[in-house]
Here is the input.
Amino acid sequence: MALLSLAASSSCDRRPVLVAARGGSAGEQGEGGLVARPLALPDTLAGFAGGAVVHGDTFMRRRYERGPTRVDATLATAQQGPGGFERWLGMSRAGYPQATLAAPPGDVNGFYQCIEGSPPSCDLLIQMRSGIHLELRGGGTSTRADVDALAAALPLAAWGAGRIEARGH
Here is the structure.
Protein backbone atom coordinates (compact mmCIF):
# COMPACT_ATOMS: atom_id res chain seq x y z
CA MET A 1 0.00 0.00 0.00
CA ALA A 2 1.40 3.38 -0.96
CA LEU A 3 1.59 6.05 1.71
CA LEU A 4 0.35 9.48 0.79
CA SER A 5 1.52 12.87 1.84
CA LEU A 6 0.30 16.36 1.18
CA ALA A 7 2.84 18.55 -0.59
CA ALA A 8 2.65 22.19 -1.56
CA SER A 9 2.83 22.70 -5.28
CA SER A 10 5.63 24.84 -6.61
CA SER A 11 3.27 26.26 -9.22
CA CYS A 12 2.08 29.81 -9.21
CA ASP A 13 -1.20 29.10 -7.45
CA ARG A 14 0.27 27.07 -4.56
CA ARG A 15 -2.52 24.49 -4.59
CA PRO A 16 -1.90 21.37 -2.49
CA VAL A 17 -1.34 18.13 -4.35
CA LEU A 18 -1.14 14.54 -3.23
CA VAL A 19 1.89 12.53 -4.18
CA ALA A 20 2.62 8.85 -3.81
CA ALA A 21 5.30 8.46 -1.17
CA ARG A 22 6.00 4.92 -2.36
CA GLY A 23 4.92 2.97 -5.38
CA GLY A 24 6.94 4.19 -8.34
CA SER A 25 6.94 7.12 -10.65
CA ALA A 26 3.97 8.67 -12.39
CA GLY A 27 2.82 6.60 -15.30
CA GLU A 28 4.52 3.45 -14.02
CA GLN A 29 2.24 0.47 -13.74
CA GLY A 30 1.69 -0.90 -10.28
CA GLU A 31 0.01 -4.01 -9.02
CA GLY A 32 -2.95 -5.03 -11.13
CA GLY A 33 -1.69 -2.93 -14.06
CA LEU A 34 -2.96 0.32 -12.56
CA VAL A 35 -1.33 3.48 -13.85
CA ALA A 36 -0.88 6.49 -11.57
CA ARG A 37 -3.73 8.95 -12.09
CA PRO A 38 -3.96 12.60 -11.06
CA LEU A 39 -5.99 13.34 -7.97
CA ALA A 40 -8.24 15.87 -9.67
CA LEU A 41 -11.84 16.75 -10.36
CA PRO A 42 -12.09 17.30 -14.14
CA ASP A 43 -13.92 20.18 -15.84
CA THR A 44 -16.63 17.84 -17.11
CA LEU A 45 -17.60 14.51 -15.63
CA ALA A 46 -20.24 12.02 -16.80
CA GLY A 47 -22.20 14.71 -18.67
CA PHE A 48 -22.01 17.18 -15.77
CA ALA A 49 -20.32 20.58 -16.10
CA GLY A 50 -17.89 21.45 -13.32
CA GLY A 51 -17.76 24.80 -11.59
CA ALA A 52 -14.76 26.44 -9.98
CA VAL A 53 -12.46 24.25 -7.88
CA VAL A 54 -12.12 25.21 -4.22
CA HIS A 55 -8.88 24.11 -2.53
CA GLY A 56 -8.23 23.62 1.16
CA ASP A 57 -5.25 22.25 3.05
CA THR A 58 -6.36 18.63 2.66
CA PHE A 59 -9.26 18.76 0.19
CA MET A 60 -10.54 20.02 -3.13
CA ARG A 61 -14.20 20.58 -4.01
CA ARG A 62 -16.06 21.23 -7.23
CA ARG A 63 -19.78 21.53 -7.94
CA TYR A 64 -21.06 19.56 -10.93
CA GLU A 65 -24.33 20.58 -12.60
CA ARG A 66 -26.57 18.97 -15.19
CA GLY A 67 -30.01 20.50 -15.53
CA PRO A 68 -31.52 20.86 -12.05
CA THR A 69 -29.03 18.39 -10.52
CA ARG A 70 -26.18 19.91 -8.51
CA VAL A 71 -23.61 17.63 -6.89
CA ASP A 72 -20.75 18.87 -4.72
CA ALA A 73 -17.78 16.54 -5.19
CA THR A 74 -15.18 16.69 -2.42
CA LEU A 75 -11.85 14.82 -2.56
CA ALA A 76 -9.96 14.77 0.71
CA THR A 77 -7.04 13.07 2.37
CA ALA A 78 -7.91 11.20 5.53
CA GLN A 79 -5.16 10.18 7.90
CA GLN A 80 -5.98 6.62 8.87
CA GLY A 81 -4.22 4.86 11.69
CA PRO A 82 -3.78 1.12 11.78
CA GLY A 83 -7.12 -0.54 11.08
CA GLY A 84 -8.74 2.71 9.95
CA PHE A 85 -10.02 1.36 6.65
CA GLU A 86 -11.30 -1.78 8.37
CA ARG A 87 -13.24 0.37 10.87
CA TRP A 88 -14.75 2.27 7.92
CA LEU A 89 -15.78 -1.05 6.34
CA GLY A 90 -17.44 -2.21 9.56
CA MET A 91 -19.43 1.00 9.95
CA SER A 92 -20.31 1.19 6.26
CA ARG A 93 -21.43 -2.40 5.86
CA ALA A 94 -23.34 -2.49 9.14
CA GLY A 95 -25.59 0.47 8.56
CA TYR A 96 -25.77 1.68 4.97
CA PRO A 97 -26.72 0.51 1.49
CA GLN A 98 -23.50 -0.40 -0.32
CA ALA A 99 -22.40 1.06 -3.64
CA THR A 100 -21.05 -1.12 -6.42
CA LEU A 101 -17.85 0.60 -7.51
CA ALA A 102 -15.39 -0.09 -10.32
CA ALA A 103 -12.59 -0.82 -7.86
CA PRO A 104 -11.46 -3.74 -5.71
CA PRO A 105 -13.60 -3.87 -2.54
CA GLY A 106 -10.43 -4.41 -0.51
CA ASP A 107 -9.21 -0.96 -1.59
CA VAL A 108 -12.40 1.09 -2.01
CA ASN A 109 -15.78 1.10 -0.24
CA GLY A 110 -18.77 3.36 -0.66
CA PHE A 111 -22.25 3.71 0.72
CA TYR A 112 -25.35 5.73 0.00
CA GLN A 113 -27.18 8.17 2.23
CA CYS A 114 -30.63 8.46 0.70
CA ILE A 115 -33.74 10.42 1.55
CA GLU A 116 -37.13 9.10 0.55
CA GLY A 117 -39.26 11.80 -0.93
CA SER A 118 -40.65 13.06 -4.14
CA PRO A 119 -38.27 12.67 -5.78
CA PRO A 120 -35.95 10.53 -3.63
CA SER A 121 -32.33 11.73 -3.45
CA CYS A 122 -29.02 10.07 -2.69
CA ASP A 123 -25.49 11.06 -1.75
CA LEU A 124 -22.48 8.73 -2.06
CA LEU A 125 -19.57 8.58 0.39
CA ILE A 126 -16.44 6.64 -0.58
CA GLN A 127 -13.35 5.78 1.49
CA MET A 128 -10.17 4.34 0.01
CA ARG A 129 -7.54 2.29 1.76
CA SER A 130 -4.97 4.77 0.40
CA GLY A 131 -6.48 7.50 2.59
CA ILE A 132 -8.47 9.27 -0.12
CA HIS A 133 -12.07 10.14 0.74
CA LEU A 134 -14.65 11.18 -1.85
CA GLU A 135 -18.07 12.63 -1.12
CA LEU A 136 -20.73 13.24 -3.76
CA ARG A 137 -23.51 15.27 -2.15
CA GLY A 138 -26.46 16.56 -4.12
CA GLY A 139 -28.32 18.46 -1.42
CA GLY A 140 -31.57 16.72 -2.35
CA THR A 141 -31.10 17.11 -6.14
CA SER A 142 -29.17 13.92 -6.99
CA THR A 143 -30.42 10.41 -7.59
CA ARG A 144 -28.47 7.22 -7.00
CA ALA A 145 -27.93 7.06 -10.77
CA ASP A 146 -26.42 10.58 -10.75
CA VAL A 147 -23.86 9.88 -8.02
CA ASP A 148 -23.10 6.44 -9.50
CA ALA A 149 -22.34 8.02 -12.89
CA LEU A 150 -20.01 10.60 -11.33
CA ALA A 151 -18.16 7.97 -9.28
CA ALA A 152 -17.83 5.65 -12.29
CA ALA A 153 -16.15 8.44 -14.28
CA LEU A 154 -13.32 8.82 -11.72
CA PRO A 155 -10.26 6.52 -11.43
CA LEU A 156 -11.28 5.01 -8.08
CA ALA A 157 -9.30 1.77 -8.55
CA ALA A 158 -6.03 3.65 -9.13
CA TRP A 159 -6.67 6.08 -6.28
CA GLY A 160 -7.69 3.28 -3.93
CA ALA A 161 -4.46 1.44 -4.66
CA GLY A 162 -2.45 4.61 -3.98
CA ARG A 163 -1.48 5.10 -7.65
CA ILE A 164 -1.71 8.89 -7.56
CA GLU A 165 0.24 11.13 -9.88
CA ALA A 166 1.64 14.40 -8.53
CA ARG A 167 0.22 17.44 -10.31
CA GLY A 168 2.01 20.72 -10.83
CA HIS A 169 -1.14 22.75 -11.57
Remarks:
- The longest strand covers residues 69-77.
- The chain has three helices and eleven strands.
- Confidence is low (pLDDT under 50) at residues 1-30.
